[in-house]
UniProtKB/TrEMBL annotation:
Protein name from the UniProt record: Uncharacterized protein LOC101503058 isoform X1
Organism: Cicer arietinum (Chickpea)
Length: 486
């Protein structure tokens, strides 16, 4: 992920993201469209049969692995896992071993589902702006366990792990766009004050003490002639808009790229009286990048905003100047000083209660966002991931086999290009096709061969169906129809 400025008729703030390997097409639609592209009806029937046999076979491959993962998770489910652990009577060492086995299964499934671990750079780019959530939010790290994940990554090193990898991990997949239109009057006023506040702190060299978000990404200028159409997403936010009295009261549309899916894995910290064993796996959808704090575990209540700091600072200065001026006056009335101090203190109190009101609004927003954005958690998330892996694997095999069947022999590089071209032309979608993984599964199924010069070819539709053979599902269906004995 990179953060860029595009120069054109006007400056645009965009985020460039590496094209992902997810095939964003429903399997049923994929099979239907590819079948319709086949000329002969007999071949169409054979192709449909092959697609079903491919899915049933791949599902069987993963069945045992998924069952092992679900059995392990039943011991670490935050809701009911503790009771099952007590029933098992496992030693602490054996429980630790099962924990690591579960994480190994989970991370393998995440990789197969094309989820990526969010890096520090990606998170900094995402949080470099504001969208709807305008309060500074951080994690209460003392409430999170820092042993479970660290132990896993010590045994399974990853590149570019985020700074907080020992406490929680954020997986992300897919990119979308979210737009919101509103007047944003208070947000615009807050932005104007924030700009003044930032200028003041920078001038006084105090920005590190108050500004929560430090932009560590680099902005790069790129040539317009380069084609980034498929992986560039524009960010339209109030922070970069020219604000004036005219547009202060007019409706404004802001836009933010979103993470289509996010999964957060963590464990709560143990206390002196209780050792926590529950592992939380939470699944979210359509999270605006600038508001990704929504998915953070164990969030602290936010601190004061730039507007609150300015109010406190201005009221303190005004109160101090007024008191000093009164004391210097020849006729100083203690009642006047008392009134001034009361006014200043009252303003402080008013600012504090305003902040509390904003805090309540923030908590309401978080609650609503969690209700709308959270897809599932725990076992439900794992079941979704298991099915997602199967669907992706099946689609890779079907597309690559179809290309070899229709367009003839191809090297792995040629097959990769042809598959991506098919997805673009027939479905108007883009993805980074995982050709090596697809070829591996085709060879495992035995339905492709490789010639001496490194080109792959299919074995024929009927022959492919014979090689895979009738699946258990087909035999059950025939038994239900009365064709064979159950």
């Amino acid at each position: 992920m990179a953060y860029l400025n595009l120069e054109g008729d006007e400056k645009k703030e965009v985020i460039r993201i590496e094209r992902e390997s997810v095939i964003p097409i429903l399997k049923s639609k994929l099979v239907m469209v590819l079948t319709d592209l086949i000329n002969h009806s007999s071949d169409q029937a054979e192709f449909k049969k092959l697609c079903k046999r491919i899915e049933y076979t791949i599902r069987a491959w993963y069945l045992l692995q998924f069952e092992d993962m679900m059995q392990l998770y039943s011991l670490f489910d935050p809701i009911s896992g503790s009771k099952k652990l007590e029933q098992q009577g496992l030693t602490s060492e054996k429980t630790d071993e099962f924990e690591q086995n579960f994480l190994t299964h989970l991370f393998q499934v995440m990789k197969k589902s094309n989820f990526k671990i969010a890096t520090d750079d990606e998170i900094n780019v995402a949080l470099s702006g504001q969208y709807l959530l305008n309060l500074p939010i951080i994690v209460d790290e003392f409430k999170l366990d820092n042993i479970l994940l660290k132990k896993y990554f010590d045994a399974h090193p990853y590149n570019n792990l985020p700074d907080f990898y020992d406490k929680y991990i954020i997986f992300r997949r897919g990119i979308g766009i979210d737009q919101t239109s509103d007047y944003f009057i208070m947000e615009k006023v807050d932005m104007l004050i924030a700009r003044f506040w930032s200028y003041l702190l920078t001038t006084l060299r105090l920005e590190k003490l108050f500004l929560k978000r430090v932009q560590r990404h680099s902005k790069k200028d790129i040539d317009d002639s380069e084609n980034y159409e498929d992986d560039v997403y524009e960010r339209i936010r109030l922070e970069n808009m020219p604000l004036s009295f005219n547009n202060l009261l007019s409706k404004t549309t802001i836009q933010e790229p979103t993470f289509d899916r996010m999964i957060v894995v963590y464990r709560k910290a143990s206390s002196n009286s209780k050792q926590e064993r529950g592992i939380f796996v939470k699944h979210f959808k359509n999270i605006p990048m600038a508001d990704m704090e929504i998915v953070l575990p164990e969030k602290k209540n936010p601190g004061l905003t730039p507007m609150d700091w300015v109010k406190f600072l201005v009221s303190a200065i005004v109160g101090l100047v007024a008191v000093v001026s009164s004391l210097r006056a020849a006729t100083t009335d203690s009642r006047v000083i008392g009134a001034l101090l009361s006014t200043v203190v009252g303003y402080f109190i008013k600012t504090y209660f305003t902040f509390q009101k904003n805090l309540a609004a923030y908590q309401n927003m978080i609650t609503n966002a969690m209700y709308e954005k959270q897809l599932d958690s725990g076992k439900g998330t794992l079941l979704h991931l298991c099915d997602d892996v199967i669907q992706q694997e099946v689609k890779e095999v079907i597309i690559s086999f179809y290309i070899l069947m229709v367009q003839g022999k191809a090297t792995s590089h040629e097959l990769d290009q042809r598959c991506e071209k098919l997805i673009k032309e027939e479905f108007n979608e883009t993805c980074n096709f995982e050709v090596d993984d697809a070829i591996h599964k085709l060879e495992k199924l035995g339905i492709v061969t490789k010639d001496p010069i490194g080109k792959y070819q299919f074995v024929g539709l009927k022959r492919a169906n014979e090689i895979i053979g009738p699946t258990t599902e087909e035999l059950v269906i025939k038994a239900k129809k009365g064709n064979i004995s159950p």
